[in-house]
Amino acid sequence: MFSLKELLRYRNIVIQCHDCPDADTIASALAVHTYLRENGIASSIVYSGPEKISRRNLLSMIEILAIPIMHVESLPTVGALIMVDCQYGAGNVTQFPVSYERIYVIDHHEVQSQIYKGIIGQMLGSCSTLMWALLQKEGFDFNRHPLLSTALYYGLYTDTNNLDEISHPLDKDMRDHIKADLSIIEKLKFKTLTMNELNIATAALFNRKVDAENNFVTIKADACDQHLLGFISDFVLHVEDVDACLVYTTLPDGHRLVVRSCTRNIMAYELASFIAQESVDEIKGNNRKARGIISNERTADSDIDSYIASRISEYFNSYDLIDAANHDLRTSSMSKYTKRKVTLGYVRTTSVFKEGTPVLIRTLEGDLEVQAANDICLLIGLKGEVYPIKWDKFLQSYSAGGQGFIRNFDYLPMAKSKVDGISVVLTAHAQPCTPTGRVHINAMPLERNTKVFTSWNPEGYYYGKAGDYIVVRDNDRNDVYIIKKDIFEETHDKV
After folding, report:
1. Which of 86, 162, 197, 359 is 20 to 30 A away from residue 190, measured at CA?
2. How far apart are CA 425 and CA 361, in angstroms?
3. Where in 414-491 does DSSP place strands (E)?
4. pLDDT in tens, 4-51
């Protein structure tokens, strides 16, 4: 288990925050810096990227709490590089050339790179909480460092939506026990916008474009940072009859966009990816919130306003919706298929997690949630795709055993307990199985892009492109799902 003592053998230590720093990464960096200084080791706090810190609350935080952070475009030779609230090689941080053995990561996000030493507390609400726990482990005297205590509290405050999204007990422990200067917190809470940013937001809201048919709003803002785009979009989502919105701005190196959604029919990340046509420097987000950058090259043949309007119109006219619980698919117009006898993998959920544990399954196909139970099995396909299946259906369709299960996927499917945050690689627990050929499916290629709400994931859809296959299980009309074209043609034969 990682401890901060490991860092004490280095000199020339640099602590790096992610680009466009927020309060959590700044506070976490200050914590490492303070610990090293207490042990007689000098360090510097840096960040990089095209944008310097401009948000008033962060500038006030840095000034009031005396945080020695600086913007850099390069690094000198370093003894060790400590990444806080970010991971080396991730899309939100500038990657400097540093030997891997000298890189440490202290973060609370999903694992994005296998190249690190350090610690990742994935279920925590903030990296500040993780730093607090690491310092507690070292017997650090927080009473001697009230400014650091305030910084860590503010990091947790901002990363958990004003403490409204705290769920992990360690976050609650820090909130309840750390002695922050709440008068400073009050000053920082209400200083998130400049007067100029208020003017930009006001003008942007006044010139909104409303798509009443799709309950969608598009807003263009004058040049501003991602934070203000998020502020505007969060505000718009509170409006009656608005299910989703897009706010964008133009900067010299590209066009920033932010997407918000409060409807299951639109996943913010998927919409942002569609609009950017996957030609992005970075797309970050989830079902509800996403942000990204559209390159100048993508809009070289048209202005950004026309480009955005065209992509949004194309998006809403590009897909069909299918709900497995209530659909009108005609299986009589489909062909019947059976699975080839290729070796697949399966995992009994209770062989990995305690019965009743809510589990998040992460694959390249997207995220889904199941509850560990004796009758719930996870089937792993040839490309690492994961499908939940009832044990009785599994026994009808597959035979345990085979020649061994292929495990060399581009991305290893993960399963994470939503109780304690422990993650496992599913293929490490998979047993081989082969299709029996006794169960048939009805399938046909999609003519249009389609979103399918499955019986397993009614609040989130699987997205299929034209050419992928829509499938209805022969003995269960409500078992509807999508299989990618290349996977389907590699694993199925027509009956």
Report:
1. 86
2. 10
3. 414-417, 423-425, 431-435, 441-445, 449-453, 461-464, 469-473, 480-483
4. 999 999 999 999 999 989 999 999 999 999 999 999 999 999 999 888
Q: Show the CA angle centred on residue 151, arms to residues 145 and 157, nearest 5°.
A: 140
If DSSP codes are grouped into helix, strand and coil, which group holds residue 12? coil
Q: CA neighbours within 13 Å on the CB side: how many for 282?
A: 19
User: Tokens 């699987």 correspond to what residue?
Assistant: 462
Question: From CA 13, how far away is CA 16, in angstroms rounded?
Answer: 10
Three-state DSSP at 448 gives coil
Write out the two tokens for 169. 């007990």
Beta partners for 294? Answer: 255, 280
- DSSP readout, 120-167? E-TTSS-HHHHHHHHHHHTT--GGG-HHHHHHHHHHHHHHTTTTTT--
Exposure string (b/e) for 133-157, b if CB count within 10 Å is 16 or more?
A: bbbeeeebebeebebbbbbbbbbbb
Report the C-alpha gap between 388 and 23 in whole angstroms.
Answer: 39
d(CA 53, CA 48): 10
pLDDT (tens digit, 9 = 90+) per residue, 224-279? 877 788 889 989 999 999 999 999 999 877 888 989 999 989 988 889 888 988 54
- Contact 149/131 with Cβ under 8 angstroms? no
